[in-house]
Design goal:
heterodimer, A: alpha/beta, nine-stranded mixed β-sheet, 17 helices, B: alpha+beta, eight-stranded antiparallel β-sheet, six-stranded mixed β-sheet, 31 strands, 33% strand
Chain lengths: 411, 617
């Protein structure tokens, strides 16, 4: 799910090639592949992801659409294979996000997965996830995914409360969520549900109802995100005009605390600020890889990649993306080589958010001296720091993770 | 119609009979500069091509704002009935802060053109300056300007002027500075009606300084009006207030550029250059005399400029402090009224406490510092000077609220002004209500015409400095005009309201206010800060207190959540960049105890642009 606004960066070479320094550890670093499917039937008012409705793309005659997406993705996989070279390890995790990946036929999703398998190989225990809209899956389509090698489905539930879904402009039928979850399980795949809290008009009781509904589905995994009003969305315009109230931090804090309480009680443990899993095995390994700073290649319009300290991101528009690949060029829009300072900042930024914590030894001097104060302020778990030499956030600390990071990085 | 004079009279050889000295009294936008431009053109002093609009206003700020800060004097030849005259037009500052400078300019003239916009009528400042001119026994020529405007009502306002200065409405001249209509007859009228200067040509020289300007290349250029005797190049002169002597390096007249002359005689107006570098060595109002044959008595009327309003100026970037000092040192060369001394504020760091003649003066200085010297400044809420007497009889002169003493205060006195408000009569009620709220005393009220009224009040200067003018404008839909002049001190029930953040007093936010308004100020400032200071990890109480008594309280609740919920592949760069930006932002935070206060909060809370009352919550 890349954000729609692309960062500034340096120009990326049209061959897509990477400097030798970025490739030095390719063989010994886990490799993940993210596949971005930039299609939706409608655009939801809060969403700033890089996604397009078919009308926006110009209908069936357009240069790229749901029918031709897989072909373009395979071209980029060819490029990836060439750039990473024979040293690239078999792929550990694949994550198909969007947009709405299930707007593609299951057959096309499997074609892309097959393409990955053919070019890189899949590790024996590879985790292969796709996001799914509850309205656009059927028991048959899910079985086809499972047969093709998918192991996990992340269902976009968002809320169980009709007026909240309405504000979010989610059109799915809440009943379909249960059907999708059941069918995923029946197909032998793991299932996760995504929730959003803090939607304007959502009461604490509404949120409790959504959490209880999610727990009742007995998924393996739950993600819960605070609604962020992103610049340039319809929701942002509505907030600016005062049509809907802005999400309120204290309300979101209450809801986060409620989520942690109910999910913990139901046997889900947090492993990242916004993610809970029923077991160690149920954690989303693809996402964990982002936070651990390993390598991943993002395929698709606007997708971001990271290999060995080099980050790059593709052109956003599907037509431009397809045109680049059609001309035999890299679809990369721009890139940035991270400095040691930036890699350190990212390690602290991402590691702090994990329940496994950031090894205190990874912190530089000024960061280490800040730990005592963070423990005193109740933001960092004191016993974990002393016992395991790891920096783990308390519940209060999770809500103030940005403050913690600032204090760790303040020079 | 008079023709342009065929030749000008030579300075130092012009009989006083052929000299006319006059100034133009007008409100800011009533067209004084445009009229002056036309006169320069008609007398041939400036040709049309070289005409810069508003020739006499030198500085950019003045040109942009359409106001004149520094006056000049231009000598223009004019022929009437076969005789050539020398007309000296002395430009006067048009704002309330410069009353003293205006009074000196008036003292250099025998007559004044009272210039009034025929679509607007007379304004309070013009009226105040008119009274000043009448006190100086100047002959007044009433003139209505902008008669070319469709909205002009010359008959109505001619009546108003006639009522003010005596005479008949028909005596009022009607001109258009824009088209030039009526300007030649006006020049003729100046020659006919204004008295010629008189003085004793054989006496020791006495010349009054009515302006003093610093020029980068020439040093200080001093403008004088010779009353007695004469001044000659290369002689030594004495400034009578300081007894300092200088050599006259150059003497001459402005026409419209400086033209050196063989001297200046009785009744003449011109400039002197002595090579001094600071306008304080050549003070407005002082008398210049010959060193060889000094006059025994000065011309009188000299006054030291007295700062009335004080404000702290702080660089937003602390490392600009030396630049600010240098900039103030430079401005001071050209501004005898500007005073400053270094000051330290716990919240704002190093800066200067500066004294100004008034709010406009403050604003002009600040703008020049920002524009000409490229400085970003915070100016603290302006305040007046208080004299505090303690129970033990000790006297304390307070120019900064932080100097207000703790302990037993027996009496506090504050400066007051005599204020004149002119407005359409429908607003009398609103104005009275406002003046009442601002602790004003009505001294009198007169109808200038059927629907225009002049109200005279005594008001504490502190109230004017706070937001009186903005309030007056908003309550009268912009129709009221205001003028004021210092009128001594009064004892008042004043207290210092301190603002405390987490129990720590923040000097920059405290203020000295009337006891009855302490609560309102406390509530306003606490509320404002609550909105401006971001939530911290702990609760931050904001208190307003008089001594140890808390009068208002707000709470900034502790922040509970700052984390962005989502952080996947594409979010990482964005999040890191945000972090880098926030790290930069932290550097612009000021610590007050443990509380981080963004620089912007100080700027907004202290902004002196009269919005103090607007951010109510």
């Amino acid at each position: 799910m890349p954000p729609s606004a692309l960062p500034d960066g340096d120009p990326a070479p049209s061959t897509g090639e990477l400097p030798p320094s970025a490739l030095a550890d390719v063989a010994s670093t886990d490799l993940g592949i993210y596949v971005h499917v930039p299609f939706c039937t409608v655009r939801c008012g809060y969403c700033d992801f890089n996604t397009y409705t078919l009308t926006e793309l110009g209908g069936p005659g357009a240069s790229i659409g749901v029918d031709s997406y897989a072909d373009a993705a395979l071209l980029e996989l060819d490029l990836a294979c060439g750039v990473l070279g024979p040293a690239a390890p078999p792929v550990s995790t694949v994550f198909v996000g969007g947009g709405t990946p299930t707007m593609l036929r299951s057959r096309d999703l499997v074609t892309v997965l097959d393409g990955i398998r053919q070019r890189f190989g899949l590790a024996p225990d590879a985790e292969v996830t796709t996001e799914a809209n509850p309205d656009s899956v059927t028991p048959e389509s899910l079985r086809e995914l499972a047969d093709g090698g998918f192991t996990r489905v992340s269902v976009g539930m968002q809320s169980a409360v009709p007026h909240v879904l309405h504000t979010l402009e989610r059109t799915h039928d809440p009943e379909n969520v249960a059907r999708a979850v059941a069918a995923t399980k029946a197909a032998g795949m793991q299932v996760s549900v995504d929730l959003i809290y803090g939607t304007p008009g959502e009461s604490l009781a509404d949120w409790r109802r959504s959490l209880e509904a999610a727990v009742a589905l007995e998924p393996d995994h739950v993600s819960a995100y605070a609604l962020v009003v992103e610049e340039g969305t319809k929701l942002a315009a509505q907030v600016r005009r005062g049509v809907v109230p802005a999400p309120e931090d204290d309300d979101e804090a209450d809801k986060y605390e409620l989520a942690d309480e109910l999910l913990s009680a139901a046997g889900y443990g947090w492993y990242e600020v916004s993610n809970w899993a029923r077991s160690q095995r149920a954690r989303c390994r693809h996402n964990v890889a982002y936070w651990a700073g390993t390598n991943w290649w993002g395929v698709g319009p606007g997708a971001h990649s990271h290999v060995g300290g080099m980050r790059w991101w593709n052109v956003k528009h599907p037509s431009a993306y397809a045109a680049r690949l059609g001309a035999g060029e890299s679809p990369a829009h721009a890139r940035e080589g991270l400095t040691d300072e930036q890699r350190y900042d990212e390690r602290v930024l991402l590691g702090t958010r994990l329940a496994d914590g950031l090894p205190v030894a990874d912190l530089r001097g000024s960061g280490r001296t800040a730990v005592a104060g963070l423990i005193a302020d109740g933001l960092v778990d004191g016993p974990a720091a002393l016992r395991d030499s790891r920096l783990v956030l308390t519940l209060r600390g999770r809500l103030l993770a940005d403050t913690v990071v600032h204090r760790l990085l303040a020079s | 119609m008079s023709p342009m004079a065929r030749s000008a009279l030579a300075p130092n050889a012009t009989p006083p009979d052929l000299i006319r000295n006059f100034c133009i009294i007008a409100h800011i936008d009533h067209g004084k500069s445009t009229l002056a431009d036309r006169m320069l053109q008609l007398t041939g002093v400036v040709d049309s091509r070289a005409m810069r609009a508003q020739y006499l206003d030198r500085m950019d700020i003045e040109r942009e704002r359409g106001i004149t800060i520094k006056s000049q004097a231009v000598r223009m030849p004019w022929e009437l009935e076969g005789t050539t005259y020398a007309l000296n037009m002395i430009d006067t500052p048009g704002h309330v802060d410069f009353t003293y400078e205006v009074s000196r300019s008036l003292a250099a003239c025998e007559g004044a053109i009272l210039l009034v916009d025929a679509a607007q009528g007379i304004e309070a400042q013009t009226l105040a300056n008119l009274y000043l001119a009448m006190e100086n026994d100047l002959t007044i020529i009433p003139v209505l300007n902008k008669i070319d405007l469709p909205a002009a009502q010359p008959e109505k306002y001619a009546e108003e002027l006639a009522k003010l200065i005596g005479g008949e409405p028909e005596d009022c001249l009607k001109v258009s500075g824009k088209t030039g209509e009526g300007v030649e007859p006006l020049l003729d009228t100046i020659v006919r009606q204004l008295p010629a200067p008189t003085g004793d040509a054989s006496a020791p020289a006495r010349a009054m300084i009515f302006d003093s300007v610093y020029d980068t290349y020439r040093g200080v250029v001093t403008y004088v009006r010779v009353v007695d005797g004469n001044l000659n190049p290369r002689e030594r002169i004495v400034m009578m207030s300081t007894r300092a002597t200088h050599e006259l390096l150059e003497i001459g007249v402005i026409s419209p550029e400086p033209v050196p002359s063989k001297g200046l005689g009785v009744g003449e107006v011109g400039y002197l250059i002595t090579g001094v570098k600071d306008v304080r060595q050549s003070r407005v109002g002082d008398t210049v005399t010959n060193a060889s044959k000094p006059a025994s008595k000065d011309l009188g009327g000299y006054r030291d400029p007295k700062p009335m309003v004080f404000s702290g100026l702080y660089p937003i970037d602390g490392s600009d402090y030396p630049d600010l000092r240098e900039a103030l040192d430079k401005l001071k060369l050209n501004d005898a009224a500007l005073v400053y001394e270094p000051e330290t504020s716990a919240a704002l760091g190093f800066g200067f406490r500066c004294g100004f003649l008034g709010l406009l003066h403050l604003e002009i200085v600040r703008e020049r510092l920002e524009r000409e010297f490229n400085l970003d400044l915070i100016s603290t809420q302006p305040n007046v000077v208080y004299d505090v007497t303690m129970d033990d009889g000790k006297q304390i002169h307070v120019t900064n609220p932080s100097e207000f003493p703790e302990g037993k205060v027996s009496e506090v006195s504050e400066p007051v002004v005599r204020a004149t408000v002119l407005a359409p009569s429908e607003f009398v009620g609103a104005i009275m209500e406002l003046c009442q709220q601002k602790r004003g005393n009505l001294r009198g009220m007169d109808y200038l015409s059927e629907d225009r009224v002049e109200m005279r009040y005594t008001l504490p200067l502190a109230e004017i400095v706070f937001d009186f003018f903005d309030q007056l404008k908003s309550r009268t839909r912009g129709y009221a005009s205001l003028d004021y002049e210092p009128d001594g001190d009064q004892v008042a029930d004043l207290v210092k309201v301190q603002i405390l953040l987490q129990g720590e007093s923040v000097d920059a936010f405290s203020a000295i206010v009337h006891k009855d308004k302490a609560y309102a100020y406390g509530v306003m400032m606490a509320g404002k800060l609550k909105d401006l200071i971001p939530r911290q990890q702990f609760e931050v109480p904001i208190q307003a207190a008089i001594g140890s008594r808390i009068i208002a309280r707000e709470n900034i609740r502790a922040i509970r959540k700052d984390v962005l919920a989502k952080c996947y592949g594409g979010d990482i760069s964005r999040k890191r960049k945000l972090l880098e930006k926030q790290k930069e932002g932290k550097k612009r935070m000021k610590m007050v105890g443990r509380v981080e206060v963004p620089q912007e909060a100080f700027v907004a809370a202290l902004s002196s642009d009269g919005d103090a009352g607007k951010t109510k919550k």
